[in-house]
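Work Package 4 report. The design task specified in the project plan requires that, given a folded chain encoded as structure tokens, an amino acid be chosen for each position. We show below one input record used in the internal validation round.
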């Protein structure tokens, strides 16, 4: 079965939409990174481009950075660029493995 991040083409127009719905999508992308090295390589190089190739489109003023330095698992940080060009962090995600007994 073909891997998909979303059921249908998804366009985010506001930062509120990004904050509400993007975490689930990024969670699926991070989980895919764990099992698919090719996907991970592409996602780490161009996260916004990879999302677009999977039918997830973000506003122009939203950027995604991947932090890998000093962490065992990549951290995905989503920023909104304000009118003066100053970035404001909207969220970050990091896949963490937990076990319980």
């Amino acid at each position: 079965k073909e891997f998909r991040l979303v059921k249908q083409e998804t366009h985010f127009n506001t930062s509120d939409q990004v904050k509400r719905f993007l975490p689930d999508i990024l969670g699926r992308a991070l989980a895919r990174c764990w099992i698919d090295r090719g996907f991970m390589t592409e996602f780490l190089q161009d996260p916004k481009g990879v999302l677009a190739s999977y039918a997830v489109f973000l506003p122009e003023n939203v950027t995604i950075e991947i932090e890998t330095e000093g962490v065992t698992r990549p951290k995905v940080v989503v920023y909104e660029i304000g009118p003066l060009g100053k970035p404001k962090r909207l969220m970050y995600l990091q896949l963490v493995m937990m076990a319980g007994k």
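Helices lie at 15-35, 37-45, 47-53. Validation will be extended to a larger panel in the next phase.
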